[in-house]
Amino acid sequence: MNLSPLRLAAVTLALSLAPLTLFAAEAPIAASLTLDASRPGPVISRHIYGHFSEHLGRCIYEGIWVGEGSSIPNTKGYRNDVIAALRTLKVPQLRWPGGCFADEYHWRDGIGPREKRPAMINTHWGGVVENNHFGTHEFLDFCELLGIAPYVCLNVGSGTVQEAMEWVEYMTSDAQSPMANLRRAHGRDKPWKVPFLAIGNESWGCGGNMSPAFYADNYKRYNTFVKNYVPGAEGRISRIACGPNEGNYEWTEVLMKNVGNRMNGLALHYYTLPTGNWRGSKGSSTEFAEDLWFATLSRTLKMEELVTKHSAIMDQHDPQKRIGLVVDEWGTWYDVEPGTNRGFLYQQSTMRDAIVAALNLHIFHAHADRVTMANIAQIVNVLQSVILTDKEKMLLTPTYHAMEMMNVHQDATSLPVTLTTPDYAVGANKIPAVSASASRDKAGKIHLSFADCDPNKPATVTCKLAGVAAKSATGRVLTAPAMNTHNTFAAPNAVQPAPFSGATLAGDTLTVTLPSKSVVVVELN
Q1: Could you tell me the residue range of the domain that residue 23 belongs to?
Q2: Strands 393-396 and 387-390
């Protein structure tokens, strides 16, 4: 049977919205959950749902910024479609300008009239010419436009203390001072609010190949000259130290011991690679069998181990949990899409990535007493993006939809859940088949989010509710016919949320039937 592209898109959309029984060919596995709303836990910071943007590939240029003269509809050079999507997503903060790019970025090159800004070579990402048309004003104005908290990364690797000090003054000082007056000369009278500042990026690698002790000394130097120019809590800048790469526990130990009370956060980086191979093939983002589906989810769950062990070291030095663990960069990393620049890290996002997002967020929720911020890498057109663009076209990825559904947990109070779940096994290896999390928002509504990791079997979760006076349950579901179903510019709605009818409430028992390979969010009313 031959289908036109339009007819194919319609069929794909119909399948994505079909009744849940369409994907329930096998009998559901059984899981159980208890939720005790009378024992609230810590607040799940909205900043766990943060994002990362770098001068890398088409993240900034074309992804966010097209310029005022572009034929693509824009507001002051920023894409209107991206603006609307990010507002719906409720992005809490955005990290910029990197990434590895941050430690070769010199902020003075990105201010003043754009036609006079000097160009540079982006040596990390494709060797392309960076024209510096998107700089400090463009980034901070974009954040202001969207109500996003800016998270700026200072250049420690190739910059100077003076350069960093003057950038902070330029951005945040309201005094009659040299840098504040330079900002005014470039068209911005009042300072911006910059609540988060990273002192370097990956200083153990692309940010300078430093030892932890050497970086700790550098951190103290730079931090000395990062000033709070606005008095009071409102003007206080949270300083984020470069933390460990994956399981480098020595780095955490040295930083906590030597820097400790001088930082507000310690940044952890961990990416999910299906093959676990940094130097060879990382696997395709769309062409994979169940073994790589399983490997991807299994490697994602290593985040639990990393957060737990790094938190334990932090607890020894900071039992009051004053310092946050900031998961600065997380997400999937595959081979680039065929035919694209290897240095641009452009990849697709499938239903597999939506599950990865849900699993990571559930881990962060479970450690909300220590994990205060996280940033998925990256926001548009790079790695596990929530948005993809192709000139005037834009689409939302399954990762976007999973994070949008789950943003009901932002700034909500976590509620303890005890989950008993069968395993999902491939060969001799196994992981929990079901993942879950719960919270109560400021309006008193309780939300439960679930992920069914098994691509073949639905799951019935029987939930016993304590301290809950609910009369009904509603929800949304994100699922797809195949593991690698993804949205394309020809069929942008192949994966999208749909109303969920698989939740029933009887007294203190909530029964939820999850489709295979799904993310589900249920609201108790």
Answers
A1: 5-41+416-524
A2: antiparallel
Claim to verify: residue 338 and residue 240 sit in the same structural domain: yes
pLDDT for 444 beyond 90: yes
As to burial, measured by CB atoms within 10 angstroms (0-12 exposed, 13-18 middle, 19+ buried), residue 361 is: buried
Cα gap 428→188, rounded to integer Å = 61
Of the candidates 309, 279, 296, 427, the one whose C-alpha atom is nearest the C-alpha of residue 349 is: 296
Task: Looking at the structure, tell me whether residues 407 and 476 fall in a common domain.
Answer: no
pLDDT tens-digit profile of 383-396?
999 999 999 999 99
Measured CA distances, 353 to 176, 197, 300, 309 (Å): 49, 29, 10, 25
Q: Give the lowest-confidence range in 36-45, 52-61, 229-238.
A: 229-238
**Tokens 């997503």 identify what position?**
89
- Is 202 one of the catalytic residues? yes
**Rounded mean pLDDT of 67-87?**
97
pLDDT band of 260, cuts 50, 70, 90 = confident
**CB neighbour class for 161 (10 Å; exposed up to 12, middle 13-18, buried from 19):** middle
Return the pLDDT at 231. 83
Q: Is the distance from CB of 495 to CB of 399 less than 8 angstroms?
A: no
Same domain, 243 and 271: yes
Token pair belonging to 166: 């003057």
Q: Are 161 and 232 found together in one domain?
A: yes
| Per-chain mean pLDDT for the chain | 94
Domain boundary pick from 411, 431, 464: 411
Q: Do 63 and 21 fall within a single domain?
A: no
Q: What are phi and psi of 304, to 5 degrees?
A: -60, -45
What pLDDT was estimated at residue 3? 41
Q: Name the catalytic one among 62, 166, 169, 329.
A: 329
Q: Lowest-confidence range among 15-29, 136-150, 388-402?
A: 15-29
Q: What is the 3-state secondary structure (H, E, C) of 119-188?
A: CEECCCCCCCEECCCCCHHHHHHHHHHHCCEEEEECCCCCCCHHHHHHHHHHHHCCCCCHHHHHHHHCCC
- pLDDT value at residue 244: 97
* 29 neighbors 458 (Cβ within 8 angstroms): yes
Tell me the average pLDDT across 445-456: 98
Please tell me which residue in 104, 166, 169, 202 is annotated as part of the active site: 202
